[in-house]
Every structure is written in C-alpha cells, then in structure tokens.
Fold these 2 entries.
Entry 1:
Amino acid sequence: MSAAAAVSSTVRVDALTRRFDSFVAVDAISFEIRAGEIWGFLGPNGAGKSTTIRMLCGVLAPTSGSAEVLGYDVGRDPEDVKLRIGYMPQGSSLWDDLSVEEHLRFYCGMFDIYGPGEKRAVDRWMERLDLKKRRSQLAGTLSGGYRKRLALACTLLHDPKMIFLDEPTSGVDPLSRREFWDIIVGLAEEGTTVLVTTHYLDEAEHCNELALIYGGKIIARGTPENLKHAPGGGETIEIVSEHNVAILDAVESLPFVRSAGLYGSALHITVAHKEDAAQLKAAVSRLGISIASLEPVTPSLEDVFADLVRTP
Amino acid sequence: MPAAIAASAVTRRFGEIVAIERLSLEVEGGEIFAIVGPDGAGKTTLMRLICGALALDEGTLLVDGIDVRRQAWRVQAAIGYMPQRFSLYPDLSVMENLRFYGNIFGVPRLEFAKRAQELLNDFALAPFTRRLADELSGGMKQKLALACTLIHSPTTILLDEPTAGVDPVSRREFWRILYRISAGGTTIFVSTPYMDEAERAHRVAFITHGAILSLGSPADLKAHLAGEVVEITTQQRPKARRALRDEPSVRSIEIFGEALHALVPSAANAIPAIEARLRDAGVTDAVLRVIPPSLEDTFVARLSS
Ligand SMILES: Nc1ncnc2c1ncn2[C@@H]1O[C@H](COP(=O)(O)OP(=O)(O)OP(=O)(O)O)[C@@H](O)[C@H]1O
Ligand SMILES: [Mg+2]
C-alpha cells in the first residue's frame, strides 16, 4: 500500500487563509474529509467556496495556513496534488469547437495517458457517462446536461482518488441533475472521495457531511440530519395560502421572526421558540388573510441555510 | 389592451433541426410566466425570437401588439433581455457596469442613482461596488447581470435562467423583486431549471422539442397529473430506490431531497406492493404517505412518460 493510500483523511485543512489585497476571502478555516465521503460545501455567493477549492487543487497559493490532499501539501507540492486529483471548475471548462472525443484525448495528454491506456480510458468513461453516441459531436452543440457529463469525464480519466466538483449541476434540468447525482453517488460507492458545491439544497441531502461557509468562515457543520435538528435552530412554520407574498410582507419584520421566505408554493417562517410560533399564528390570523394551513414542519436545508446566514 | 407577448404558430429551424415548432402562447401584461423544459428544449431560442435577436421562419410574434418582424427596434426598446451568458465588462467595476447599461438605455442621472442603490441593496452587492466584475464570485456576477437588465425599468423582461448559480437566500430575494416589479405592471417571461421557482410563477409552460407539452397555473398543472405520489421517507434511499425500480405498480421512483417519491397510477394498489418490496430488500425504517404532487413531480412524470 502506498503512503498516500494509508491515510484515512483524504483532505486535512488547517487554518487555511487566502487574501486578495486587504480582502480576506478565506479566513483560517480548518476541516477534514474522510476517504470515500461525499462532502458538501455550501454557502452564499462570494462566501469563499471556489477560492477554497482552488487552493485545495493546487491552482491558487494559500496566503497562510496549510492543507494536505491525498498526503501532499498543497502549498509545497501543488504539482503532485494536481496530477492526483480531479477538478471540475465552476462554469464551463470546454472548448466549443472540440468534439467530445477530442476533449477526452486532450485531457489524457495532460495526465500522461498515452497508447492503449488512452484508448481504454476514453472508451471507459464515454461508456460510463453515456457519451459514446455523441463522441464526434462538438462540445458547443451539446445540451447543458451533456456538457456537464463531458466536463466530469475529463476530470476522471486518470482515476483520481479525490474529485472536486464546483457547482457541477448549475443550470441543468431536474432529470439530468438526478442522473448526474446517480453518477456521483456511484463513484463514491467505489471509494472516490468527493467534495462538491451546490446551490440546490435538495442535492445536499446526498452528502454524508456538510459544511456551511459564510464570509470566509465555516459557520456550521454536520450531516444533513444534524443540521436540521441543531440546537438553537428554532422552529419552522409552513403556511399555505393563495396570498403568500402579502403574508410574507406583513410578517417578515416582526421582531420574533428570524427568517422567512417563499418555499415552492408555500411560505416557510423560522422563529426562535415554540411560544413565538403561537405569536406568529395570532399575528397571521389578525391579518384577516385566508390561509389553507399553518403548521410546524421539519425545516428544509434551505430554511436552515437562510436562518444561519441571517443570524451568524 | 394587447397581450404582452403573443406568439402564434412560431417556427424556427436551424438547418434540419426544428428548434421551435408551431408554438403558440399568450402572456398577459404584468404576469410572471415561467418556461421550463429539459436542456435543448428550445427555451433560449424562444427568448431570442421574442426579443428579435433571431428571425422567425414562420408564424407571427407580437410584443405589446408590435410585430417583432416589422419593428424589431421598437420591441427592443420596451424589453430587457438577460441572456444565459450575459456580457459583463470584466475590467469595469460593479458600479461602472451598471452605469454602462444605464447609459445604453438612456437612464437619466438622478433616476440612475436611485435605481442603482435599490438594486445593489436588494442583491447584496452594495459592499462591492468598486470590485472589478472579473473578481466577483460566479453567483455575484449573475446578480450583477440581473441588476444591469433591470436598470432601465423595462416593461417586459425576458430572463433566461437568471438564477443559475445564485445562492438560495439570494434566489428568495430575487423572487421578491420579481413579485414587486410584476405587481407594478412589468411582464416577466423567465426560464428556469428550478421547479420550486416555476412553482412561484403565475403560469408555467413545459416545453420539449420546441413545442408546448402543457401550460397552466402551477395548481392546474398539478391537478392534471395522472396518478398519485407516494412519499417514502427512509435513511436508505439508494437501496430503497433500487428495490422499487422494477416494481410494476410504480411508474417512476426518484430521490427528492431526503425522501423518495414514487409516482403510481393508484396509491391504494401500490402501497402494499411497495411495502413488500422494501421489506424483502431489508429496508425497515420506511414511512409511506400519499402527498400532493409538486410541480417537479409533474415535470418528471411528463418527461419520463
Ligand atoms: N482574483 C480575485 N481578486 C479579488 N477578489 C476575488 C478574486 N477571486 C475571488 N475574489 C473574491 O473572493 C470572495 C470569494 O469568492 P469565491 O469565488 O470563492 O466565492 P464562492 O463561494 O465560490 O461564490 P459563488 O457561490 O458565487 O460561486 C468574493 O468576494 C470574490 O469577489
Ligand atoms: Mg464559486
């Protein structure tokens, strides 16, 4: 067994920091990711997710602190890290006028995979990600879902033990998103460690472990279940009414309302205590707006997220 | 008053591919109208036809009663269009980008200052007015693009997946803004891959292969779902899903956040069969209940049938 395979933590981050001039984008964060985990990285826009990922992938130098990925220090040995991990950056990393197969061959070259090994890798990942039929199609003409599959295939050719996926499903339709997650879960079951970011919080339910970053600091961690039932998490009330927006306008600035927002066709309101829930009910009935139902629910991850980001 | 957007038998081809095929729809003034559909369904092509960026092959298309083919320039002055890949100037700051779009649309100075402040606050971009667009995070760029589209307070806006990459809290804020401007009479035509967003629109059209598959209010669309939805809550979702994949009384089985949703023709028949399958597979913690379908259930059902 190699030295790298013997470590049970695939990623070890210690007080990792990155500044841009005087602005601190990532502020002394520390965490570990165990082998085989699907580790979800959540947070508002500009929180520091991509900056952290770029440091862990060896493409952006940390300002201070350290991080070890697959046993290599990202500050000292960024090239070793880059060769051993897979990185799917946010946004598009494809060339519109190269075909599916040309992309895969190009990336084989980057990872020194030549000859029979190249053919094997290209065929294997085209097959697995259902890209065979589209092998000669130009990337620019692929639909959003297939572009993401191709970008993923490009990161997997060298069989990395750890992959970093930065918003892999952004802008992808619901069916394709599901298929994409089947692939991610399959890879993790085979032992690949996955760090993934997403703004679709229903997807975060697939993760073994979640971390929420805000203003460059990690403000919450745990399994999806833990986060939803964390002490101090408050009570979430769901209101169903034809007049959601009017109710929202009326209740959101009430002193005991911690966070409130539209949730699909319903309204979710988080308050600190059970007693506040009773107050809320009274306040809503005073509005004289007809409602179909008002009851406590288990908060969704979106409610938890909104609540934490408002009251850090 | 003419419809804000009236499309009748609109067709557009690219070579042999028919991107939009005899598509008709009417959007009322002040309405929030969402289009959803799989990747490649023709959503972007439709938007580009409406704003006159692309010529139609057949059919007619009127915006506020004005023919897009004859008077494209008048249409363009009335609408704001935010394409999927909006061009921000990477070496201009947040404020400079806003000013640039304000100038293009001739927004008067005083009005600009007020409007820019409002949008920057609403989108939580106010602390970053001097940062270069190139140095913004992915989601912040998207929010700035939205602000640029709204700077001249257009009467109709076309938004092509405006919230892709935008964080959940900002998406909530963004929809509040949409409600506010729609209440003020602005028409909003928006495409989205998020079904919970489509759920917030007044009316929704599902499109595939360039044609409308169904159209109506979210409540109508859900009411017309053939069948029922059984929610299965379990900690062993992948295992439960595998066990139910080829159960004949289940039409489709999908993971929805922390639960599984089984679409079934009849819940009364399916529930005992599902329970038996789960028991055989060793899934012991499952809790089953019949739930009202979400728009996403309806969408998945329409597409997988
Ligand atoms: N090259 C740079 N120069 C200056 N500031 C930068 C640079 N790159 C990133 N930043 C800033 O660092 C902060 C964190 O950005 P980052 O891209 O990591 O956010 P994120 O969490 O990935 O957000 P999103 O969800 O929008 O993708 C932001 O305020 C961003 O503007
Ligand atoms: Mg990012």
Note: Chain B has two domains: 5-216, 225-304.
Entry 2:
Amino acid sequence: MHPKASGTSASEVRGEALQRVIERYGTDPEALVEILRSLSEQLGYLSQDDLVAVAKVLKLPYSRVYGVATFYSMIETSPVGTHTLLMCEDAPCHLAGGADLRRALERRLGISFGETTADGRWSLRTVSCLGRCDLAPVVMIDGRWYGHLTVERLEAILARYEEEEG
Amino acid sequence: MKETRIILRRVGRIDPLSLEAYAGEDGYAALRKAVQTMTPEEVLETVIASGLRGRGGAGFPTGRKWSFVAAASGTEKVIVCNADESEPGTFKDRLILEGDPYAVLEGMALAGYAVGAREGWIYIRGEYAEAARRLETAIERAYAAGFLGEHILDTAFTFHIHLHRGAGAYICGEETALLESLEGKRGIPRVRPPYPTVAGYHGLPTVVNNVETLANVAPIVLQGAEWYRALGVANSPGTKIFTLSGDVAHPGAIEVPMGVTLRQLIELAGGMQGEFKCAQTGGAAGTIVAADKLDRPLTFDSLREDGLSLGSGAILVCNQQRCVVDLAYVLMRFFENESCGKCTPCRVGTLRLFEILERLRRGRGEAGDLERLEQFGRYVRDGSFCGLGQAAPTGLLTALHAFREEFEAHLGGVCPTDTCPMQG
Ligand SMILES: Cc1cc2nc3c(=O)[nH]c(=O)nc-3n(C[C@H](O)[C@H](O)[C@H](O)COP(=O)(O)O)c2cc1C
Ligand code: SF4
Ligand code: FES
C-alpha cells in the first residue's frame, strides 16, 4: 500500500521517502540495488522523476540507474494498484493447482496478469518461485504470504481486502 | 533410512535469535575451538580432509576453493555467502537462515579465519524479507557478544559481516552475477576465468559459498573430518537437505546422509499421492527421470553416473495424472523469463523452445517439432554463456528421452492425461 499522508503533496512524500532510504543505505553507488528496491517498496513504483532524483543523489548517470531499475523484478517502474498480488507460477505451485488459481483470479478481477484493474485497486503479477513451495500454491499480497490456496480460500481473502477498504 | 538432522538440528527447536539457546547447543564452540586452539592452516586442512562439497549445486570441493583464496598473499580477501536461493522447488537455505542464522554467521567467520579474510557479505534474495530481518538482528547481537568485529573471542582475529538484499532476479544466484549485483549493478554474469577466488568482489580474491555449505563448517571443525566422512558416501560425504514438493503426502524439507535414493526420499515424505510417474531432481535445472531411477543413489556424481542430478536438492514428484509436456512448458517459461539476455543461445533459444512447447500444449504442434526441441535444446545447452542457459534444457531433454511417446501424442493433438488446453 502506498503512503498517502494527508496534507503533504505527492512529490513531498516521494522526496521524504528518498531521504529515509539514503539515510539507511548511504550514497555509495554500491547501494543502488537496495536503494531502488526499498524505495519501490515504499512508493509502490518508481517514476522517471524518482530515478532522476536517485541518479542525482548518488552522482550516477541516469542510464545506469534506469538499467538497474528495469533489471530487477522487485523494482516497479510503472504505476501499480493499491494492492499487488504476486502469484508464483513455477512447477511446484503450478502442479498444486496454481493454473486454476490463475484463471479464477483473472475472471474475478476482469484483467490479465501484468495488468491493473480500472479502479486502481488490484495489480496482478506472476513471479518466480518464492521459496515457499512446501505451502504450494502460494501468492503474496502486499508482502504477505498465503499458502495452501484453493480458489475458494483465495476468493475469501480478496473479499476481506476489499471489505477492509469499504 | 531415517532423517539425520545435523544442519537442521536446531531449526524449529530453539529461539533462532537467542545467542544463549545457540550456545546451549554447541553454538560458537567451533569458532572458539578454531581461534583459540587451531591455526588457520589447521582449520583449512580439516575442511579439506572432510571432503565437504558445495551445496549450491555444483558440488565443488569447499576446502579446495578456500585454499585458492588462502594462498593469495598481500591482499584483502572476502567471504560471500550466497543466500540468493531462487531455484524453483528449493527452500532449504531459507529454513537455515530463518531457523538458525548464527550457524551461517559462525560458518562465515570460520571461513574468514581459515583463508585470512576480514570482510564477509551475505547476499540474500530480496523476497526473503523475514530471513533478512532475522539476520540483521543476529548480526547485531553477534557483534555485541564479541563473535564478530575486532578481537573476536579476545584473540587477534577480526571479521565483519555485511548484509545485502537483492531485488528479484534468479540469475543473481550465479556467483559472478551475484558479485555484479553486490557492487550495485545489473546482475549480468562475468567472463570466467578469472574465477572469484582470483578476482571476485571488487577484484579481490573471494570465496563464494552457499548457505548450506557454510552451515556444514562448524560441525566439521568441532567434530572433525573423520566423523564427517563417516556420514554419506565416499565422494559425497555428509548430509544433504532435500526439499520435496509435488505429489507426496508431506511436502517439506528432509535432511539425510548423501547417497539416499528417490524411493527413500518419497517414503520419508509420507509416500506417494497416486502412482509414481516421474520426478525432477535438482530443481528446475535438473533431470526429469522415470521409475527406472527410483533406486539410484543421489550424489554429486550421480548425474554423470546415472543421469540423475542432485543440484540444489529440490525434488519435484509427479504421479500418473501429470503431463510431462505441461511440466516442460512451465520449466521453459521460467528460464525464458529469467534469462538475463546477455547471450543469444539462451535469450533466443529459451524463447523458441517455449514457443514450441506452447503450441504442443495447444495441440498445434508442427511436423518436426520434436526434432526441433532436441536440436535447439542442445544448441542452448552447448552454446550458452553461463550455467543458466547451459542447464535450462536439461528437464526438457531428459523428459523427451524418457517420455517420448507423450510428446508424440501431443504432436498428434492428444494430451494423454487431459492436462493441456488442447484446442484441436
Ligand atoms: C543460474 C544459476 C543460479 C544459481 N543460483 C544459486 C543460488 O541461488 N544459491 C547458491 O548457493 N548457488 C547458486 N548457483 C551456484 C553459484 O554460482 C556458486 O557455484 C555457488 O554459490 C558456490 O557455492 P558452493 O561452492 O558452496 O556450492 C547458481 C548458479 C547458476 C548458474
Ligand atoms: S546463458 Fe542466459 S543467463 Fe547466462 S549469460 Fe547467457 S543470457 Fe544471461
Ligand atoms: S514453486 Fe511456488 S513457491 Fe516455490
């Protein structure tokens, strides 16, 4: 979920997040991967302006920052929904019913994996094995695990997220 | 065959962040023994004599790797713990990191002492947030208690550990891509040689070892090479953690002496659900084998001897209801996604293979597709720059060998298990 502190502008929020991340990881170019991942986690995704800001603080060419940002799957470079659902699509999860979950999710939300719902609520993403194969099939919603899923259980989980928001 | 928990002996039984609990079960006894009563050479000799081989997949002798770095003089040296664990079906390193983090820190310090390194890095995959949090706390506490930092256990030995989280990329488990990522860059593999032991992190002689490998070190130093060699088999001593998934009653981790067979592992996991058809051993990059391999021992040499890879120790078990074409398709999707794009055989080859498997699944195979799978598969295997591409077609090629009729049926528009979305 994205921070939306009332009374502060979006760009202020983004600036503050960058400051926090720099305080934590420093400005050594070596920290670039961690800085971008951490910032992306806090902001949901990184805009071109965000990448320019990081390049400036770390005194790196924009191309280097862009190259790193687009290489790693945990660094988002386009807007995502309020909630991001990551579904593992590797063999242990696939065999444990992952393919059915995938179809059910697409039907329920009316979008394909890789897309975001029109109301901006949900983004669906596939990911590689998350190392929880003993709980297959597995999804992660906003950083939280859900394992041993069936279509019914996943339905109930989505409904709970939606109720919480009203 | 029974479980023999050595590496996992504390996991799930003690508070993983309590140094007292760790010390109460041999914790830091090996490091104390090493720095207070052994020379670095003696520690190195013990690890060489133990026959320990790397648990990251390739089985390289750990003592030999360390000796290359130990031999370098007049330079800083580095220990890197490879905690990128991303091989589909594998979660053993996560269990160790979450359940016994001090064991990894102790193993790294022992490695540092043996080779003369003062700096260590843990590169952990970005998705392992909980393990990273625990490691962070464990590192802090180890410093506070004098197990890390300057003058460890009141000796002249100094060793520091830094934690670096990745950001999602399977290729970063490959040791040279890992080093690139550790230096804040895209994880693209480097040309080898020079190997990391010669020029690794920032060009310094670097030991890169897997989490499970490092967790083996303290027991070896504490109990000796002979004790260790009595476990497992001649060229593959010790225990191995296997992670079972698929059609077994109890998917999960099992630690057993090396040399176990597939049949024994399946029994330890509570037996089959349904009737055995095939298993993929070693992770997504491993071999797909039929029932004729059920009684062959799994060791670092079984790929060469029996066509059965050990790899990361991941075992995916399939019953008769599973379709091997569908399985090969899911595997190729993974490699196509994770290819870093540096070299053509892997970048283009995995895509071509994926496309052919996709049309076979849909009943739209074309004449010559099975020959194309074999031909492109060999091309990717033999022409790729790094281990990702070289191993990407292993599952496909071994499945084609063992289950050719099933591929042929798909070519004829029929999925015998009725798994694939045939469209006629
Ligand atoms: C594509 C690819 C992915 C790899 N992923 C990992 C990994 O996640 N963890 C790991 O320890 N080794 C991995 N390896 C092996 C490492 O390159 C390296 O051999 C290993 O970390 C050495 O440690 P060891 O000697 O203790 O096994 C991978 C290799 C390749 C080619
Ligand atoms: S084999 Fe694949 S992952 Fe390895 S360098 Fe080539 S493109 Fe990259
Ligand atoms: S295959 Fe899904 S978590 Fe490992």
Note: The longest strand of chain B covers residues 239-246.
